[in-house]
Amino acid sequence: MKFATRAIHAGQDPDPSTGAIMTPIYQTSTFVQESPGNHKGFAYARGKNPTRMALEKCIASLENAKHALCFSSGMGAIDAVIKLLNPGDEVITGNDLYGGSYRMFTKVFERMQIKFHFIDLNNAENIRKYINSNTKLIWVETPTNPTMQIVDIAACAKIAKESKLWLAVDNTFASPYLQNPLDLGADIVMHSVTKYIAGHSDVIMGALCVNDNQLFEQLAFIHNSCGATPGPMDSFLVLRGIKTLHLRMERHCKNGRAVANFLAQHSAIEKVYWPGFENHPNHKIAQSQMKDFGGMISIVLKNANLEKTFKVASSFNVFSLAESLGGVESLINHPATMTHASIPKLEREAAGVVDNLLRLSVGVEDIDDLLADLNQALI
Ligand SMILES: *Cc1c(COP(=O)(O)O)cnc(C)c1O
Fold first, then answer.
1. Same domain, 41 and 170
2. Domain check: are 69 and 109 in the same one?
3. Same domain, 42 and 181
């Protein structure tokens, strides 16, 4: 079945005991057994919960994956992937990562003797220079956050296969509607479900999707053993939100395109980062691996110091100044002091995250109101 149909129906059958069309919120920690070990497939809710299971089947279906696991946050999902590794193992990743991923890699896992190489992934061939006998994992984000660089997933997958490495893709910015990394050869897809998949800024959740049965068993073991599993109420909220993922994404893309084109010709703007522009360095790759270009846009303000940038960031009426992205409402964020504050200034600026950069998550409001709001804030 097609994406829109799967978004609404995958993993969900009417409740067998009542016929309820929506999967009930199984708000229970444990399940009664007839005799020891004799139960209906559910024993303790950290391991398995029916509401969560329906959501996992739905997310797996949208990523064309055999298996999915939901976590209590996106970071919980990333944590589980890195726990596949052992001390001495090495990871090759981008120099333009989500700030929280960078913080976890450098502040938590480097202490446990896992080594990370943060490199320029605009040309995937760069990866080869950093591969050695300890390398186990390539971790990429595309589009990247906040400068919207595009990483060639199929090219990374080819390198990973040749060297027997895992390729994991953080697919949060694209959502499964725009891009399906497993189809391009990735081994693991990670989502901050908090963002586009849930879509309503009311849940924190993460997910991993895989095809390989053995890799799934390893991740499921870490999932249950380490315990970053989400509750049934949050699973229900995401099941509800996911039903409109395709509709929301269509509008995010349409509004995103209009906002990007408007900003590109605005006199207060020095630069607009959006992969849909033909002069974006990896536009062709974006075109080939994504269905459309999404609603995430970053801008560099012309001749603006930190004070001026703060003033602009605080003068919106429809856009809200907040961390996060992917909800129905438009958000504006100042990466240097908000989402990316944990990255040292020199590294941050080298990756283009300068003090006068603002990131927009273009929502699904009326485009006329969004453009009017930008226009009044940018003067
Ligand atoms: C938000 C985000 C995460 C972390 O997810 P949480 O749900 O906030 O834990 C990871 N990667 C990207 C690209 C994100 O935007």
1. yes
2. yes
3. yes
Q: Report the distance separating Cα 223 and Cα 225, nearest Å.
A: 6
In this prediction, residue 214 carries a pLDDT of 98
| 311 has catalytic annotation | no
Spacing, Cα 33 to ligand 1 middle (Å): 37
| DSSP classification of residue 311 | H
Same domain, 195 and 172: yes
CATH number of the domain where residue 220 is located: 3.40.640.10
Nearest CA to ligand 1 atom 8: 74
User: Is residue 102 annotated as a catalytic residue, yes or no?
Assistant: no
170 catalytic, yes or no?
yes
pLDDT tens for residues 136-170?
999 999 999 899 999 999 999 999 999 999 999 99
What is the pTM for the complete model shown?
Answer: 0.97
CA distances (Å), 22 to each of 25, 48, 188, in order?
9, 18, 29
81-97 pLDDT per residue, tens: 999 999 999 999 998 88
Q: Which of 192, 220, 242 is the last residue of a domain?
A: 242
218 and 251 within one domain: no
Q: Name all residues whose Cβ lies below 6 A of ligand 1.
A: 73-75, 98, 100-101, 141, 145, 170, 172-173, 192, 194-195, 204, 206
Query: Which residue in the list 96, 170, 234, 355 is annotated as catalytic?
Result: 170
Question: Tokens at residue 21, please?
Answer: 């069309």
pLDDT tens track for 248-301: 999 999 999 999 999 999 999 999 999 999 999 999 999 999 999 999 999 999
Domain membership of residue 55 as a residue range: 3-242
Residues 228 and 88 in one domain: yes
